[in-house]
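lol so apparently i was supposed to do this last week
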Amino acid sequence: MDKTVIGIIGGSGVYQIEGLEDARWVEVETPWGEPSDKVLTGTLDGVPMVFLPRHGRGHVHSPTTVPYRANIDAMKRMGVTDIVSVSACGSFREEMAPGDFVIVDQFIDRTFAREKSFFGTGCVAHVSVAHPTCPRLGKACFDAAKVQGVTVHDGGTYLAMEGPQFSAAAESKMYRESWGADVIGMTNMPEAKLAREAEICYASVAMITDYDSWHPDHGSVDISDIIATLGANADAARGLVARLPGLLGGARAPCPHGCDRALEYAIMTAPDHRHPDVVARLDAVAGRVLGST
Ligand SMILES: CSC[C@H]1O[C@H](OP(=O)(O)O)[C@H](O)[C@@H]1O
Ligand SMILES: Nc1ncnc2[nH]cnc12
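anyway here it is w/ LNRAV4D5 bound
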């Protein structure tokens, strides 16, 4: 048995969590640059927790400039085994209403201006993201939301757009009607792909703030409405997070879905062709398989 270390990546409106014992903000250095902010570490019900505000305290980083690689590397360096993302999202479904939560299980990645992998020239790897979220962790999030009294939907496809502008009405209609997306946001990609490369289980809790631009009764997305809904959502999200240690427990069996072994056969570059500088940068993310930890 390993030990569970829960990582929380807080999205818009979630810049801190409360109730951690021995809470302190810690600076983490990574080979991928500075993370979005310091991380808040502590324990809850005896389980170590690491919290990182995705946009930084004060909401400094845009969805495009969030340092996704540094954030996931920092989580790995802190020993995080399970990452839960909480994100503000628009909804493409009448029944997924503002205030509801959706446990995302699929993604359509439409982002195009971000670094999407830890690997590249000098050390090439291909991991599977056919099932990009961890069902075990997703179930814990679902159960936590239920106990918290939130209306929660089990499963949904998240369309990741580049932003920062919201979608045109025609795009919103296409994502919903032709592509079958359920929710839309700007940040879960490449975050989920990078978590998989780093062999960290990843689950995403979409907090619905609006109906994007398709709904005949709701017009276009309005940031002031989003901010109003965010306040209530963020409190419920913090409640959900506080229930996770009790549900996951401190002792951790290997992931039954293999998230924590994603790199086992993924690295293509022959050992004698791997660039030492590239390998050095992968010490935290891929040290288990590259032999550098
Ligand atoms: C505040 S609305 C747009 C903004 O909110 C979401 O961020 P996050 O996923 O970090 O909660 C969305 O993706 C946009 O970045
Ligand atoms: N409609 C929307 N589109 C993209 N990101 C969002 N975050 C919250 N609402 C959103």
